[in-house]
Amino acid sequence: MRRISILILIIAILLATAWIVRRWVSNSRYRDLVTWSQGSLADREALITVQREACPGAPFILPADGFIGLLYADPRSPYSRWHPHQGIDIFSNTEPGVTAVYAAYDGYITREDGWKSTLIQRVPDDPLNPGTQIWLYYTHMADQDGNDFIEAVFPAGTRELFVKQGTLLGYTGNYNGDSDRQVWVHLHFSIIRDDGNGRYTNELDFNNSIDPSPYLGRALNYQCSTDPQICSASPECHQ
């Protein structure tokens, strides 16, 4: 009986694995990630989104050229259903320090003391929710050793420096803090809630984040079925 139970368990594991593999193969998002991971430069170039102007009806510009590979509320590794992605990851088809990062909107830039790869931008008046303050978070703008690619005008300790939409902030990198886990060259971009007292909330808490889809005019929520690489007249999904 024990052997039969073990055999049944093995079969169940194999069936579950086959189901997951079939799901990956049938899901264009998984296929695109595999292409990005294993494809040639030309294959990867086909996944790149380049846009200097906002999508029609959307207030923000895409802050970097690249492959929008991990989406908002994305449960895929290194995230999970219990700790989904708080923003979007825009992967660069370049070495660290090459792909430019631009301000997505008008606002006030702060770089806290000790921040090696990160800027945060205060937007006093949310263009989609007037009267509300929000914050835009940009990170991974440094190499693996923490040498930053942030523009010199934003040294550590910068407080409330106003920039216009499209201002060059720095360049994408692959810095991942003290973690031993290496990351691809990319920009992590997220929209963060204000705490009600004029301060940004903890970006690592998903509940403090806002779906960037309507701000960028793209279906950037993982639950949406629309291609995030193209502008959409209805970027929010209602599922």
Q: Could you state the CATH homologous superfamily of the largest domain?
A: Glucose Permease (Domain IIA)
Structural class, from helix and strand content? alpha+beta
Low-confidence stretches: 15-26
- Shape designation: globular
* Whole-number tally of structural domains: 2
- What is the CATH topology classification name of the largest domain? Glucose Permease (Domain IIA)
Global mean pLDDT: 89
Q: Under the CATH scheme, which architecture of the largest domain would be assigned?
A: Distorted Sandwich
Q: How many H/I helical runs?
A: 4
Radius of gyration (Å): 19 Å
Query: Element order, helices and strands?
Result: HHHEEEEEEEEEEH
Helix content: 10-25%
What quaternary form is this? single chain
How many beta-strand segments?
Answer: 10
N-end to C-end Cα span? 45 Å
Largest sheet: 8 strands, antiparallel
Task: Provide a compact summary of the structure.
The chain has 239 residues and is of the alpha+beta class.
Question: What are the main properties of this structure?
Answer:
10 strands, 4 helices, 8-stranded antiparallel β-sheet, alpha+beta, globular, 239 residues, 2 domains, Glucose Permease (Domain IIA)
Report what the structure shows.
By secondary structure, this protein is of the alpha+beta class. The chain folds into two domains: 1-38; 41-216, Glucose Permease (Domain IIA) (Distorted Sandwich), CATH 2.70.70.10. The protein is 19% helix and 18% strand. Strands 1, 2, 4, 5, 6, 7, 9 and 10 form an eight-stranded antiparallel β-sheet that branches. The longest helix has 25 residues, at 2-26. It is globular, with a radius of gyration of 19 Å.
